[in-house]
Write a structure and sequence with these properties.
The complex is a heterodimer of chains A (157) and B (681). With 157 residues, chain A is of the alpha+beta class. In chain A, 36% of the residues lie in helices and 15% in strands. Chain A contains 6 helices and 5 strands; from the N terminus they run E-E-H-E-E-E-H-H-H-H-H. In chain A, strands 2-1-5-3-4 form a 5-stranded mixed sheet. In chain A, strand 1 and strand 2 form a beta hairpin. The model of chain A has no long low-confidence stretch (mean pLDDT 96). The N and C termini of chain B lie far apart (69 Å). With 681 residues, chain B is of the alpha/beta class. The N terminus of chain B is likely disordered. In chain B, the strands form 5 sheets. In chain B, strands 8-9-6-16-13-14-15 form a 7-stranded mixed sheet, sandwiched between helices. A 5-stranded mixed sheet of chain B has the order 1-2-3-4-5. Chain B is globular and about 75 Å long. Chain B is 26% helix and 23% strand. The chains are: A alpha+beta (157), B alpha/beta (681). Chains A and B meet through helix 1, helix 3, helix 4, helix 5 and helix 6 of A and helix 3, helix 5 and helix 14 of B. Bound molecules: FE2/S2 (inorganic) cluster (2 copies). One FE2/S2 (inorganic) cluster binds next to loops of chain A.
């Protein structure tokens, strides 16, 4: 089955097995590392990607759904040469231990900051509460999101 | 890779400093540029980069960065000249496991020694960096691995893709000691993409071209197997009584003075309980294995590549020389999770399909149902207070199964799941009681307090219904929870302030300084009145009684209607000797506090007599973003003291500080973990 969609700003036109999950297509066919397999059950958030700007769980999403739509993964949020303020903030705050959960969290946080420019700490907690982190990096991640919001507002740094 | 010339610069004992010309850039572990001896630690390349071969594995704890700091410091080169190479049994130093928060103690001095040898060479070349670089140690150098993980580089074993790689799943039994009654795999063998269905008695695996095909086929196959379950597990409710009844041997952990509870004494007694708990790593275990020309290569995220090699070789009837184990990171493991078993199972499957790399990915339920668990504990404490309000007699008895079950060699290979499930299973290894001063279930069971008469007994349960394993802190979590809760209970008996009561029994100056600093930083004396629903609790421990010191105050709030416990703030003071990377240490302690808070408030593996009933994140919930407290960690730097690990130091104190804070908030004393709201009813 052929699907055509916008992936991280470029047109993707690929052949996929009809019943493949979006996560499998992104990881195994397109070979992206950002979206991660954590549960396959829509419970942990490791696989989060943005579909038309909204954070979804790619592990339970059929790949066919993205036809004609816009998909953004961690790789499309920013890169080394042009990091998203969130990525810069996660590095500045050293906001991960193992980092396995961080990709999904940055991805959801990017969508959240696009809609909420000056979030309170509780709003950040709420926005990320569907994401699990086993290493206990949440305090740093919250600080990183706060830092990114300040940078995006031109408040400091 | 072509290497035009090699030159050994210096060789002394376990340290070989090695210089290669020509083959610069990434070193190819299988190419000619490989270091010859497994003891080589540092290679200086012609492009000026310094390659550090790690003996310990990166678990997300930042050990790579800390070792690079030490190497840069000793070599006198800029930090960014150091490159790290992970553990590979073909060429890395053999430092066995990465565990017990002793990596920096064990590996740090060896790296320093190797770097000192290399420095002589650099001095000859006048290649050291002009600026004095010694300040690298003690600075919060950013972790080397974080940028790659932030931008989606290949960072984890899950990101490794080999040419021709195929995908596997294992259809695990539903419970320990279950056996197959009936299995008909024919229809599954014909499913699209399926390359092989492998069965070896109670071991069943499937290999397919694509991952989705392997998943679908595994699910179909699972439905075609009829298992018989022995129904011999102690259920969650029965487990504590079961521990006391089960076969055990009593070991005296500590005896000082003469513990004597006479009829005239008022003996204070309490019983504390810790359930089976899971590592619950965010990434379920995975491994890749490749078998060709009678050689096996296994990529794994287990904590020790050399022990893994020995155990796999024995289990599969190979010579260790024909097995190579290469470490790749996965998500944090916090001890012995499913990693070793996934590696062994991938190897079994790869040997049935030579010439193709086989990638095995455990599903979420595989990890929850088959990872070895942090074992349940029953702890009974007794104490007598004298007329001056000092503890005169103290006794601590604990019951628990072994906190270790790692396949590490010929004798312990029987711990592998595959070794149990295959035809002609390997014999069950003899239960191993980790001796003091580290201890297993008895870790931190001896109070650090100055008490005249102390007796500590470990009842080492040798009947093992569920494999136990190292889970961050081992017995220290349960024992410190018990000791520090009991200290609070004793203080309350005589109306003493919990801080003052602890200080009264401390004669270790470093411990006292930690507690004084904590009392000041939290303004403890201004804490709210008891019984208001807002609670503050304190706890203290020195990990293993010989590693880092940590005192912690937890502030929380208990909802009067729902009994929900909301953590507000944790403040910790830690003395870990000489600090190599302050921010890295803080991050580990913060993470430890959050994880222990999660264990303490939420976590228990639910057991019925038939099976584990926690198999996903709904049946095994952990703390979420909207439930975590703010965390403040203060380090006391002691440059004159040796560096101590902090990875596990916070586990016990956090649990007790929460229990003590709940008591302060509500007047209710919780002694059985986890503290779910129903316990407050
Ligand atoms: S992997 Fe998709 S939510 Fe966990
Ligand atoms: S940083 Fe390890 S799971 Fe979040």
């Amino acid at each position: 089955m052929r699907i055509k969609f916008t992936l991280n700003g470029k047109v993707a036109d690929i052949n996929v097995e009809p019943d493949s999950s979006l996560l499998e297509v992104l990881r195994n066919d397109i070979e992206l590392n950002g979206p991660k397999f954590g549960c396959g059950l829509a419970q942990c958030g490791a696989c989060a990607v943005l579909l038309d700007g909204v954070s979804i769980r790619s592990c339970v999403t059929p790949a066919a759904i993205v036809e004609g739509r816009t998909l953004t993964t961690l790789e499309g949020i920013g890169d080394k040469d042009n990091p998203h303020p969130l990525q810069a903030a996660f590095i500045a705050e050293q906001a991960m231990q193992c980092g396995y959960c961080a990709s999904g969290i940055m991805t959801t946080a990017a969508a959240f900051l696009a809609s909420n420019k000056s979030p309170t700490r509780d709003e950040i907690r709420g926005a990320l509460s569907g994401h699990l982190c086993r290493c206990g990096s949440q305090p740093r991640m919250i600080r990183a999101v706060e830092r990114a919001a300040r940078v995006m507002n031109g408040d400091d740094e | 890779m072509s290497v035009s010339r090699r030159e050994f610069i210096h060789s002394s004992g376990s340290v070989v400093v090695y210089f290669s010309l020509g083959g610069c850039g990434a070193s190819d572990p299988s190419g000619e540029d490989a270091v010859a001896s497994s003891d080589n630690r540092i290679t200086i390349h012609t492009d000026g980069s310094v390659e550090l071969f790690m003996g310990k594995v990166e678990l997300g704890q930042g050990i790579g960065t800390a070792l690079a700091q030490i190497a840069a410091d000793e070599l006198g080169v800029a930090f960014d000249r150091i490159r790290l190479t992970g553990v590979d049994t073909d060429f890395s130093p053999d430092e066995s496991y990465t565990f017990s928060s002793i990596s920096i103690q064990q590996s740090g001095p060896k790296v320093r020694e190797a770097a000192a040898s290399a420095r002589a060479y650099l001095e000859q070349l006048s290649d050291r960096d002009a600026a004095d670089n010694s300040a690298v140690v003690g600075q919060s150098v950013p972790r080397i691995d974080i940028p790659g993980k932030t931008f989606g580089d290949v960072s984890f074993i899950q990101d490794v893709r080999l040419d021709g790689m195929v995908h596997a799943r294992v259809v695990h039994p539903p419970a320990e000691r279950a056996v197959i009654q009936e299995m008909d795999s024919k229809s599954v063998e014909e499913m699209p993409g399926v390359l092989k269905v492998v069965r070896d008695s109670n071991f069943v695996g499937i290999i397919a071209e694509r991952e989705g095909q392997a998943r679908t086929a595994a699910a179909a196959l699972a439905a075609l197997i009829r298992w018989e379950l022995p129904g011999d597990l102690p259920s969650s409710d029965e487990v504590y009584d079961w521990l006391k009844r089960a076969e055990s041997r009593k070991e005296e952990v500590s005896a000082s003075g003469t513990v004597n509870f006479s009829p005239s004494d008022t003996v204070h007694r309490a019983t504390y309980r810790r359930p089976y708990q899971a590592h619950a790593s965010i990434s379920p275990s995975a491994a890749i294995a490749f078998f060709e020309d009678s050689k096996l290569t296994v990529w794994s995220h287990a904590q020790g590549m050399y022990p893994l090699r020995g155990a796999i070789a024995h289990t599969l009837g190979l010579s260790p020389q024909d097995v190579r184990c290469v470490h790749k990171e996965a998500s944090g493991c916090y001890g012995h999770n499913g990693a070793d078993d996934a590696a062994c199972e991938a190897a079994v499957l790869a040997m049935r399909l030579p010439g193709r790399p086989v990638r095995l990915q455990w599903e979420r339920a595989d990890e929850f149902l088959w990872e070895p668990l942090g074992p349940a504990m029953q702890i009974e404490t007794q104490a007598v207070l004298d007329s001056e309000g000092r503890i005169s007699n103290w006794q601590h008895d604990l019951w628990s199964c072994p906190h270790t079950g790692r396949p590490r060699d010929v004798d312990s290979a029987g711990y592998f799941l595959y070794a149990k499930h295959k035809e002609n299973p390997l014999p069950d290894p003899a239960p191993y009681s980790i001796p003091q001063p580290s201890g297993g279930s008895d870790r931190n069971s001896v109070p650090l307090y100055d008490i005249k008469n102390v007796r500590v007994n470990k009842h080492f349960v040798t009947d093992i219904p569920i494999l136990g394993s190292s889970l961050r802190g081992l017995g220290a979590y349960g024992n410190v929870f018990a000791i520090e809760s009991f200290m609070d209970e004793l203080a309350a008996q005589i109306g003493a302030d919990p801080f003052e009561f602890r200080k009264r029994h401390l004669d270790d100056v470093r411990a006292l300084e930690v507690m004084q600093r904590l009392e000041k930083e939290t303004q403890w004396q201004a804490r709210p009145q008891p019984g208001t629903g807002v609670g503050w609790g304190v706890a203290f421990a020195r990990f293993k009684n010989l590693s880092s010191y940590l005192g912690l105050v937890m502030q929380l709030q208990v909802n009067a209607e729902t009994n929900a416990i909301q953590l507000i703030k944790a403040t910790a003071v830690c003395d870990a000797g000489l600090v190599v990377n302050p921010d890295g240490l803080k991050a580990q302690i913060e993470g430890g506090i959050i994880q222990s808070a999660s264990w303490t408030l939420k976590e228990q593996v639910r057991l019925s007599n038939r099976a584990r009933e926690s198999y996903d994140w709904n049946t095994y919930p952990i703390l979420r973003f909207d439930e975590i407290p703010d965390v403040d960690v203060i380090l006391i730097d002691r440059p004159e003291q040796k560096s101590l690990g902090v990875g596990e130091t916070a586990q016990g104190p956090t649990a007790a500080a929460i229990a003590n804070a709940i008591y302060h908030a509500t007047g209710k004393r919780l002694r059985q973990l986890p503290f779910t709201p129903d316990r407050l009813v």
